[in-house]
Design goal:
39% of the residues lie in helices and 13% in strands. By secondary structure, it is α/β, with parallel strands linked by helices. It has an eight-stranded mixed beta sheet, sandwiched between helices.
């Protein structure tokens, strides 16, 4: 007689196996930060003014990369919002990738806001328990601040992208705030938080303290507050992404990927494989709604920085500046 494990669906078996691997092996995917110095006028760190009694966030920082000719050109520029993942602060995109050097000659402003990290990772949401209001902070405070303090083009000239938790944030924000972003891109993004419902919520709670996965405090209990989970989940909001140009990149979570292997980060394979399954779920939902999307799903790959740098380069190679310029 087969065990109860084998009587559940293949997708759920896969999820259980992946979580078992993660619990045993996964190390935070922060990588080793380079000796990057944020030097004005090219790079500016800003503490965004806000009412802490009205908008609860653990940090209110953003890092801004300005075009090389910003001070003298008199021009206005499109903006790329670049979101970080669970294990990292807002500084990691510049510390762990070449985003500064890569975009320096471009007519583009790059904005990297803080979204909480570690056990305080905010999941780009206003928490139902009132702890954090990251969505309100980013959408109602950061975006207006950037537009009022820098020479920016608006609406059709704004893009958002992110990795892992930030990939979720990019897609969730684009769906929940129609017209705010012309382009949304996810790199190894957690784009289906309801994947293998109802087990994900329980495992997220279990792993939160160690890995920053969302607790019931974020959207509520996955079963009793299913409507609220759906209101934030990119896969459930696939139809609402129809007005945004979408880009998805992720690996299959197996060795011999295009950016090489780090065998000291074995958990990075299991996590990327789980993320790949989430992305396939989003693709099915988008296709069902006839929503166009451009994908780079490569064989191999880990949940780590060399792949996210390559994903960023790929996004620009797809004509991002033409889309928002």
């Amino acid at each position: 007689m087969r065990s109860a494990f084998w009587r559940i669906t293949p997708d759920v078996r896969r999820l259980l196996t992946i979580f078992a691997v993660l619990a045993a092996l996964l190390a935070p995917a922060a990588g080793r930060a380079a000796d990057y110095v944020c030097a004005p006028p090219r790079c500016v760190d800003v503490d965004i003014p806000h009412d802490p009694d009205a908008v609860h966030v653990s940090q209110a920082h953003v890092r801004v990369l300005l075009p090389a000719n910003y001070a003298t050109s008199g021009l206005s520029y499109p903006v790329l919002y670049l979101l970080h993942g669970v294990g990292d602060p807002y500084t990691r995109w510049t510390e762990n990738t070449d985003v500064d050097a890569f975009t320096q000659a471009m007519n583009l402003i790059v904005v990297m806001p803080d979204g909480g990290h570690g056990s305080d990772a905010g999941w780009y949401s206003d928490w139902v328990d009132g702890t954090w209001q990251w969505e309100t902070f980013h959408i109602s405070t950061v975006v207006p601040y950037i537009d009022s303090h820098y020479r920016t083009l608006r609406d059709e000239h704004r893009a958002i992208a992110g990795l892992s938790m930030g990939g979720f944030g990019a897609m969730s924000y684009a769906a929940r705030h129609a017209g705010l972003f012309k382009v949304a891109a996810s790199f190894s993004g957690a784009v289906d938080i309801n994947y293998a419902f109802p087990l994900t919520g329980a495992f997220f709670n279990l792993l939160h303290q160690q890995y920053g996965t969302p607790t019931d405090g974020v959207w509520g209990n996955q079963i009793t507050a299913q409507d609220n989970w759906k209101k934030h989940n990119p896969t459930d909001l696939a139809a609402d992404l129809g007005g945004t140009k979408l880009f998805l990149a992720t690996g299959t979570g197996t060795p011999a990927g295009p950016q090489g292997d780090d065998y000291a980060n074995l958990g990075g394979y299991g996590l990327e494989h789980f993320i790949w399954q989430m992305n396939l779920s989003l693709v099915r939902a988008l296709d069902a709604q006839n929503v166009p999307h451009t994908d780079w799903f490569y064989t191999g790959g880990q949940h780590t920085w060399p792949y996210w740098q390559a994903d960023l380069h790929w996004l620009f190679g797809q004509g991002l500046l033409n889309d928002i310029g």
